[in-house]
Design brief:
This protein is low in regular secondary structure. It has a single domain, classed as 3 Solenoid (Pectate Lyase C-like), CATH 2.160.20. It is 11% helix and 12% strand. The protein has two helices and eight strands, in the order αββββββββα. The strands form two sheets. Strands 1-2-3-4-5-7 form a six-stranded parallel β-sheet, with no helix packed on it. The radius of gyration is 19 Å and the shape is elongated.
Length: 188
Amino acid sequence: MTGQDHTNDPQEFESREQVLEALGQTRDLSGADLSGLDLSGMQLFAVAMPGANLRATDLSGSLLAGIDASGADLSDANLAGARIYAANLEGAVLRGSQLPAATIKAANLWQADLSGADLTASRIADSNLAGSTLRQAKFVSARVARTSLKEADLVTAGEIQPVVAERVPLLEARRAHKMFERRGYPAR
């Protein structure tokens, strides 16, 4: 021991059990290395993990509520069926991540990189994807509502297939607007 303070050194975890033990003592996993771990089905509430390495981590079926994973690397992570609520993922890297059937609500993904992410059948609502990169992302049957995509890079987005609830003739525009209002979507 050299007498140096190592409290800011990133934590490295080799097992799910080590993560659970650490969460029993602290809610701060800032910069932690959780890459490649099986954390499927975990419930993470208000955990601080900015800058964490979650590359290829299995978080399928997990609940991520109120977490701060800003700047975290979730490249190639499995988030299938995950529930992500009020999470801060600002500037996070989710390249190639699997998010099919995920629910993302009230999340901040400002300037996040979702290049090549699979969001098939996911539900995204009341979230911020402004300035994010969505190159080659798949949105097949995804539902996106009340979510900012301002200045998001959709130029070469992969498969985007909007869900059309009903086709309404132009002569029935008033009825179409009322339908949208009832469902809480702005009419366009």
